[in-house]
From TrEMBL:
Protein name: Protein RER1
Organism field: Engystomops pustulosus
Membrane topology: Multi-pass membrane protein
Taxonomic path: Eukaryota, Metazoa, Chordata, Craniata, Vertebrata
Localisation: Membrane
Keyword annotations from UniProtKB, A to Z: Membrane, Transmembrane, Transmembrane helix
Length: 89
């Protein structure tokens, strides 16, 4: 493998600035998720609140394209629940 061939490596063999930025961003996001895991009720309330804000925004603005985005947001949890369905009776 030549120099700079691996993912995130710059020409000099060190990780690039962009790679380090997104790696750090991912670590911060994972840390936030890990800290919020015990607070199930708060997460559900935040989800419902953000969903209500989104619905109000869609209703007030009535921008083209929101039907497609809303449909995708509706289907994602459904497809995720099907993906993790246990096999068998």
């Amino acid at each position: 493998m030549s120099e700079g061939d691996s993912i995130g490596d710059s020409v000099h063999g060190k990780p690039s600035v962009v790679y380090r930025f997104f790696t750090r961003l991912g670590q911060m996001y994972q840390s936030w998720l890990d800290k919020s895991t015990p607070y199930t009720a708060v997460r559900w309330l935040m989800t419902l609140g953000l969903s209500a804000l989104y619905m109000i925004r869609v209703y007030i603005l009535q921008v083209r394209g929101t039907k497609l985005i809303t449909h995708a947001l509706e289907l994602h949890p459904f497809s995720q629940s099907i993906a993790f369905r246990p096999y068998g009776p």
